[in-house]
Structure formats: structure tokens, C-alpha cells
Amino acid sequence: MRRRKQKKLQASLAGLTHQQLGIQVSLRPVKTAYSPRMQIIDFSSLQGFEAIYADAFAIGDAALAEDFVEARFRTRLVIAGAKELGMMALFHAAKVVEATLGDCGPPLPGYGAAILGLAKHLRPLSRRP
Fold it and tell me: Which residues make Cβ contacts (< 8 Å) with residue 3, sequence separation at least 6?
């Protein structure tokens, strides 16, 4: 019974093109990986997130070493990466860190809480489901 329906469907779709069926065809190969939930992930997005994660980790290390020039630099890298990947919550958390670190000199009080807020936005993104 099921095979008959499949054959009828295949016969009815045989003469149709991909445009008539509403299917988009890409001619360029895409590198993909599969998550445990079998969602397709683009490798460039994965590498971008990995860079953001490493830069956010470096912000904390630089702040602990009181190297605020490095922390500001890494914060700007996180902002650029989050904006590029469309991670707006992470982007706004990084902007808060940037505002508390300031442009030069000692940071404003509460910069540690701002870095913690950035880490809290990163944590759910990096967890396995």
C-alpha cells in the first residue's frame, strides 16, 4: 500500500523541475557537521563562535592580570564576532563590558560583574544539549 503511494507520488513529480517544486539548489559545496540533535551547522559559524569563546575567556584572564588594554582589545573582537554571527544578546553583553572598561585608564567599578554577565550569555551557547 505504501509503495503504491510512493510510486504514484514519484510519477507525478517526475516531470517537475526543482523551481516548480520550490526547492533551492546550491552549486557550491557546503561543509557541514551534525550536532547531537542532527541540526546542520556551518563550519565557519562554528569557528567564529570558537573565536568569540576564546576571546571572552581572554577578557577574564586579562582583567585578572590588570591588563586592561588587552581586555579592551578582546572585548572589541567579541563585539565584532557576535555582530557578524547575529548573536545580539552576546553583542549587548559585550557592549556593557566595553562601556565599563572605558577607552583608557582604570575601568569603572563593576567591570567584573559585566564580564560575568558576558560569561553568563556565553554559557548556554557552549553547552551540549
Answer: none
pLDDT tops 70 at residue 26: no
**pTM across the whole model:** 0.64
Is 88 a domain residue?
yes
Q: Is 30 within a domain?
A: no
Within 10 Å of residue 44's Cβ, how many Cβ atoms? 11
pLDDT digits (tens, 9 = 90+) for 59-110: 999 999 999 999 999 999 999 999 988 889 999 999 999 999 999 889 999 9
Q: Which three cell numbers stand for residue 46?
A: 562554528
Q: Does residue 89 lie within any of the structural domains?
A: yes
Q: Output helix, strand, coil percentages for the chain, rounded to the nearest 5.
A: 65, 5, 30
Q: At residue 33, does pLDDT exceed 60? A: no
Cell numbers representing residue 18 in the block: 526543482
Q: Which three cell numbers stand for residue 119?
A: 560569561
81 lies in which domain range? 40-126
* Angle at 108 (CA atoms; ends 106, 113), nearest 5 degrees: 120
Cβ-based neighbours of 79, under 8 Å, separated by 6 or more: 91, 94, 95, 98
Would you give the DSSP letter of residue 17? Answer: -
